[in-house]
Q: What sequence folds into this?
């Protein structure tokens, strides 16, 4: 039982000494966890006088701020962009591929949006971290997504340098046709070399003016990112291990200012921003009502650029995560420092509003991963397991107001991933502010534990079958997801019990599909029938947005990510393949039978009220 005086101190600091777990049982937070969290809060450095303010943001919490809600139902593809490769991409999906995917799905299939994984930037030199959800910054995007040939200066290259770039591209284009894991290090080495050649091409006056305008609009935040990249190339991508003077962001920024390395990285972000804009323009031109929906990760790498630039706003010695739940039974530790609640409040939640403004810059919508973190976050003290954390509270009105206000200003859709352990009333509060929720078929249960009937689903939400953190439909159908998690030691129940539960889930949904006339009376005879039936079920719900996982639609059996693993499983490195492990390229999608059957099953949503 928690020490009463410690519990009182914790509650006064916004730290909950107890919580309800996923089955409704009260759990007392260990005293050692509370002591560690209180110590970390007290140890936070004072506000920095040189803390960056990137862009003019009128107000973090505008009165009555409300995100725009779509007036029509629509469906769209949900993709891990790095995995969606074409014959012209360099072994890694890029923004040209995204634009082409938008043109095809918008024009030919009447899709209304494409939801992509976080495109946040990683390290500026190999090894490049694979996780889109543990970036070095959330303010800028990874140049791995650049299509080199689309950079205007490419056309001005002399024959020699152009031949050099073609030589860099050829083996990576060949890699796109193979099922090998995505090699970000090889891709970045080649694109970095190509960008170095392109950097030598003088900009036209118009192009130079556009670059200058971009830099002026980005302000100090871009200076910090470019400086961090320059210093990281020399000293390594973890500022905590740099020479002492450079660990101070103001001093480090001054040391790197004007260097070619810093200028290079600022220029690269301008190029990425142009191609992000081109992808959104292509989506809207194809008839998409929303276009590209970007994904915002929960946090950043503790040694990365944002953690360096905003040291006074983040708490060291703590990582955010999630308590144990039915699927992740050991809890989750995401290795990311949390915002300091009081420091964020002292800043009027402006840093959070600026982050949302940056994420919405070239977007038709924004999905906020683990949106519950706007109200409370699960903090795990350094050295402790994920189940020994505690919830820490934030100013819900200020945080939600920042998101709703920035979405309103951008005219963009806002979606919150309100999955897992969600405190009572939060989803309704988000809805009041125009922020759509998230419904996942695998977790959509009626009071009796069976599948939630279509009419009982929320309207103001994005409905999907799964997420990037759960198995694909084919993975559930085959039972591979249990085998893999058991082999990785991630189960707290016996493997056979877990396998029986998984089979029961498949059986329950098969029966629901048969009862709805979406599969033959005896149930689906194949994983393809099961997949089409599940997406047809989503089409019968009132959800405003329906997301179709491209991995499901091509029949891939593998998960893109298995929570609780790092190197034990090739998270975020799996290319798009079919059920036999054969790569499915962008050019293959229009003729792919399962893709066409799944999209037909949901395409009627786009014409509904």
A:
């Amino acid at each position: 039982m928690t020490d009463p005086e410690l519990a009182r101190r914790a509650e006064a600091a916004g730290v909950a000494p107890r919580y309800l777990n996923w089955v409704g049982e009260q759990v007392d937070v260990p005293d050692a966890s509370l002591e560690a969290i209180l110590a970390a809060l007290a140890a936070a450095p004072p506000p920095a006088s040189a803390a960056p303010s990137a862009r003019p943001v009128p107000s973090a919490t505008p009165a009555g701020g409300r995100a725009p809600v779509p007036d029509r139902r629509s469906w769209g593809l949900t993709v891990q962009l790095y995995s969606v490769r074409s014959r012209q991409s360099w072994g890694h999906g890029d923004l040209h591929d995204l634009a082409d995917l938008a043109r095809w799905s918008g024009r030919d299939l009447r899709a209304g949006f494409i939801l992509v994984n976080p495109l946040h930037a990683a390290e500026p030199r190999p090894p490049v971290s694979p996780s889109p959800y543990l970036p070095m910054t959330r303010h800028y995007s990874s140049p791995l997504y650049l299509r080199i040939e689309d950079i205007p200066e490419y056309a001005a290259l002399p024959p020699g340098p152009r031949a050099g770039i073609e030589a860099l591209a050829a083996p990576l284009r060949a890699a796109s046709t193979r099922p090998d894991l995505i090699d970000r290090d090889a891709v970045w080495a080649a694109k970095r070399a190509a960008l170095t050649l392109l950097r030598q091409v003088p900009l036209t006056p118009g192009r130079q003016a556009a670059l200058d305008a971009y830099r002026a609009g980005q302000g100090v935040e871009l200076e910090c990112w470019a400086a961090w990249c320059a210093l990281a190339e020399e000293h390594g991508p973890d500022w905590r291990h740099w020479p002492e003077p450079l660990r101070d962001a103001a001093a480090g920024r001054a040391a790197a200012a004007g260097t070619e390395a810093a200028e290079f990285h600022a220029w690269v972000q301008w190029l990425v921003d142009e191609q992000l804009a081109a992808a959104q323009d292509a989506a809207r031109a194809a008839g998409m009502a929303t276009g590209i929906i970007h994904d915002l990760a929960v946090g950043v790498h503790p040694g990365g650029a944002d953690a360096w630039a905003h040291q006074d706003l983040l708490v060291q010695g703590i990582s955010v995560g999630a308590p144990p739940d039915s699927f992740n039974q050991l809890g989750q530790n995401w290795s990311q420092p949390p915002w300091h609640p009081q420091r964020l409040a002292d800043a009027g939640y402006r840093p959070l509003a600026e982050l949302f403004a940056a994420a919405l810059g070239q977007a038709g919508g924004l999905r906020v991963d683990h949106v519950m973190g706007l109200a409370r976050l699960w903090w795990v003290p350094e050295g402790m397991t994920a189940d020994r954390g505690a919830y820490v509270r934030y100013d819900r009105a200020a945080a939600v107001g920042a998101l709703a206000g920035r979405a309103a200003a951008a005219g963009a859709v806002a979606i919150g991933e309100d999955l897992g352990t969600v405190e009572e009333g939060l989803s309704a509060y988000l809805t009041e502010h125009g922020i759509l929720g998230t419904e996942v078929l695998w977790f959509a249960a009626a009071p009796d534990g069976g599948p939630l009937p279509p009419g009982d689903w929320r309207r103001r939400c994005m409905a999907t079958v799964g997420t990037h953190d759960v198995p694909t439909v084919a993975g559930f159908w085959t039972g591979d997801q249990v085998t893999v998690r058991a082999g990785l030691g991630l189960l707290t129940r016996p493997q056979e019990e877990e396998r029986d539960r998984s089979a029961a889930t498949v059986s329950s949904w098969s029966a629901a599909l048969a009862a709805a006339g979406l599969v033959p009376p005896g149930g689906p005879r194949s994983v393809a029938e099961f997949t089409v039936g599940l997406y047809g079920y989503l089409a019968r719900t009132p959800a405003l947005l329906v997301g179709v996982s491209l991995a499901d639609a091509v029949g891939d059996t593998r998960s893109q990510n298995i929570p609780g693993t790092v190197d034990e499983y090739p998270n975020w490195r799996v290319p798009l393949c079919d059920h036999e492990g054969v790569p499915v390229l962008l050019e293959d999608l229009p003729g792919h039978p399962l893709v066409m059957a799944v999209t037909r099953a949901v395409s009627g949503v786009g014409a509904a009220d």
About this structure: Residues 58-63, 605-609 have pLDDT under 50 and may be disordered.
